[in-house]
Write a structure and sequence with these properties.
Oligomer: single chain
Radius of gyration: 15 Å
Order of helices and strands: HHHHHHHHH
Structural class: mainly alpha
Largest sheet: none
Number of domains: 1
Shape: globular
């Protein structure tokens, strides 16, 4: 049995390493689904992406928060977008500065890593591109920062209910 990013990272014991491995796995899965151009394999998508994204809830180092913030440069699909939103609210103020960084400078990582093909809408990602436009990313980041400032919560119960609902 091949090791998963989570098991490899837990062996290493470094939150930064675990966060980077989780992000790499999430982005790889999303790229495969985005290329599919259909809404097939949504169960596999939810199982893989949502489960990996939920692991960020236990990662609180500044480096892990930076990695979580960098995921704002990708469209994660409707189920994972809701989870991402909740995770950002749970992290709150410590995540605000990394989010502001991406709001100010934008993120070109997605296009650099994956190429222009991923700026086209994908049927498997709700008709959105994996690599959002700078305007889409800015709108998302502004909303998240405003909600952090307002102290909007995402409780343990919210997270559990959401994760269960998304993993079905």
């Amino acid at each position: 049995m091949a090791p998963t990013p989570a098991t490899v990272a837990s062996i290493v014991g470094d939150q930064s390493t675990e966060a980077k491995l989780l992000k790499r796995a999430i982005v790889s899965d999303l790229a495969i689904y985005a290329q599919n151009q259909t809404s097939q394999n949504t169960d596999a998508y939810r199982d893989q992406v949502v489960t990996r994204l939920s692991r960020f809830d236990t990662l609180n180092s500044p480096e892990a928060l930076d990695v979580l913030a960098s995921l704002s440069g990708y469209y994660l699909g409707a189920p994972a977008e809701k989870l991402y939103h909740c995770l950002v609210l749970r992290k709150g103020a410590p995540l605000k500065e990394p989010l502001k960084y991406y709001l100010k400078d934008g993120s070109t990582e997605c296009l650099k890593e994956l190429g222009q093909d991923f700026s086209k809408p994908s049927g498997s990602l709700d008709g959105y591109p994996l690599c959002p436009t700078s305007q889409q990313e800015a709108e998302r980041l502004k909303e998240l920062i405003l909600e952090i400032d307002a102290g909007r919560p995402c409780t343990d119960n919210d997270l559990v209910l959401m994760t269960r609902a998304l993993a079905k």
